[in-house]
Write a structure and sequence with these properties.
By secondary structure, the protein is an alpha+beta fold. Helix content is 28%, strand content 15%.
Amino acid sequence: MSRRRTPAQAAPRCTVTVCRGCCCGTAKVPGIDHAAQLARLKAELGAVAQVRAVNCLDACEQANVIVVQPSPEGRAAGGRPVWLGLVNDPDATADIAEWVRSGGPGLADPPEILDLYEFGPSRRVRRVLEG
């Protein structure tokens, strides 16, 4: 089977994984419209990234968790997945969307404010998502 892209296939892009499990995306994290956050990311990034919701990333103490994985081009340039926690503010969601539109990990520097949200998950959790 050929690995060449046909014109109908889109260029590889970032993947934005939004946790929506036992804590993230639920009333356990009050004061945020979880559905609106996911809808906003899908609306703003649908043309430039794959946005997906998953059941649980097992980092509940950091709810709401969003992981930005680089595109193949970003990974080749040294980009690695970036785990962002406590993303419970619409401004943080907007900052993530802006960064991904600019290219994401490996291709664009994130807004400095996102440093406050970045965390390192356990090795077991990283293996499951990134493996």
